[in-house]
Amino acid sequence: MELCYQLPVLPLDRPVPKHVLSRRGAISFSSSSSLFGAPDPRQLSQRRGAISYDSSDQTALYIRMLDVRVRSQVGFEPERRGSHPYLGIDFRTLHSRAESAGSIPVRRIRRLFSFQRHLLPSRLLRGPPHLNPLHILDEDYCGQAKCMLEKVGSWNFNIFLFDRLTNGNSLVYLTFNLLNQYGLIELFQLDMVKVRRFLVLVQEDYHNQNPYHNAVHAADVTQAMHCYLREPKLAQSLTSCDILLGLLAAATHDLDHPGVNQPFLIKTNHYLAALYRNTSVLENHHWRSAVGLLRETEVFSHLPTEDSLSIERQLGSLILATDISRQNEYLSRFRTHLDEDDLCLGNASHRHFILQMALKCADICNPCRPWELSKQWSEKVTDEFFHQGDIEKKHKLEVSPLCDREANTISSVQIGFMTYVVEPLFAEWARFSDTRLSQTMLGHLGLNKASWSAMEPEASGSSEEGESELTRVTEEPSSRALSQGSQKS
């Protein structure tokens, strides 16, 4: 039986029911909710927030506010101090697309389903099922999703279908299921309400307008990480803490991703680039955002301070390893370990390094998926690249590698990415873990590359150009002076 203490969104002028205040949980509210007949939130400013309370402390109310200002479909915010004049981009609307009038009813229906999703888990608190006219539909969705979760360890797992069956909540459902499946909630004595709230906030902090770097991608990486954790060498050696870190890092590794890459943030003098001194800017931000949510939800508040800080540091080390500009650094170290055959998974630092490599593989495993899944991911990531390139051209900035739609095609980008980034990494992973899964991934990689090559008449010329641009990306100089805690290995 599953209980959820988070209520549906309430408008600011709606009083909180007294019986709700007798329970421990949270209330979210908004000044412009389409669910209650307000105008489309894309067309006006809105103020959102949440109140957390605890019945054991009647004097404590914790208020979390978030202002979202929307000016246009392009989405520009007021200029930040010290920023590039073009930088005030509201990344929440960066990849928004204009919607036709006919799509409005569909959007409202989806919001209604989302509203029902919040009601479903707390059915016992609301009364008999027959009082909810849509409970049958919701239960049907949950039933299909439950059937899919029984095969969550399959490499052919269709995360797009699972996301539809969970009504856009694939990251929450999948991660919570895996934490429970590994027995981590019971082992670490985690509060299920806090864990669920943490996962909901994580999912909400992904920008689902992004074609690629969104919550579905995070769920896909988490599912891939689960597949790797079940590989014999890892399953026999990893501790429960290692598994917990691996799943949390996978779920949060792109948290609050703005939909543009690091060079874009640096060239526009974005405040994040200044904050992290142009070094692993996005990865540092993902890590710090994850730590912020962990502390806000107090998931590990019951653990000794030293243990919770250790978890945060190791989480940062895993997320920072996904920085593509350090790809060759990690690959070279991995290759050296394999050549010298000196990896000892009884050693904590070696286990952590393997977790870093597993997360790197999970992060870019799309070309190793079956074609029908891989093709969708390829189109999404290229769409995101090209959209960034369009913005750079519009504001007369230097176009980032692989982001010029006039000089690149989806097939040329993918062929170069597979050849110079994916193949070397997964070849070494297969050396480390020579299993059926590794061979399956390499097999899909070869078939997918051949499929893209067949679509690219000038594959050879495009591949050479792709090699040049990918070399610029993967060998970008990066400072060794990372934030404190990021060097743990």
Instruction: State the end-to-end distance.
Output: 40 Å
Strand order, sheet with most strands: 1-2-3-4
* Biggest sheet architecture: 4 strands, mixed
Report mean pLDDT, rounded to a whole number.
79
Outline type: globular
Strand content: 5-15%
| Low-pLDDT segments, ≥5 res | 1-10, 29-48, 54-86, 100-104, 107-140, 477-489
Helix/sheet category: mainly alpha
Helical fraction equals: 40-55%
User: If you compute it from the alpha carbons, what radius of gyration comes out, rounded to the nearest whole angstrom?
Assistant: 23 Å
Number of helices: 21
Q: Based on DSSP secondary structure assignment, what is the total number of beta strands?
A: 4
Order of helices and strands: EHEEEHHHHHHHHHHHHHHHHHHHH
Keywords for this entry:
489 residues; mainly alpha; 4-stranded mixed beta sheet; 21 helices; 4 strands; disordered N terminus; disordered C terminus
How would you describe this protein?
It is a single chain. The chain is mainly alpha-helical. It has helices at 18-21, 104-119, 123-126, 135-149, 159-165, 170-181, 184-187, 192-205, 215-229, 232-235, 240-252, 262-267, 271-275, 281-297, 305-320, 327-340, 348-363, 371-394, 410-432, 436-455, 459-474, and strands at 10-11, 25-30, 46-54, 57-68. α16 (327-340) runs parallel beside α19 and α19 (410-432) packs across α21.
Topology:
Layout (H helix, E strand, L loop, with lengths): L9 E2 L6 H4 L3 E6 L15 E9 L2 E12 L35 H16 L3 H4 L8 H15 L9 H7 L4 H12 L2 H4 L4 H14 L9 H15 L2 H4 L4 H13 L9 H6 L3 H5 L5 H17 L7 H16 L6 H14 L7 H16 L7 H24 L15 H23 L3 H20 L3 H16 L15
Parallel strand pairs: 1-2
Antiparallel strand pairs: 2-3, 3-4
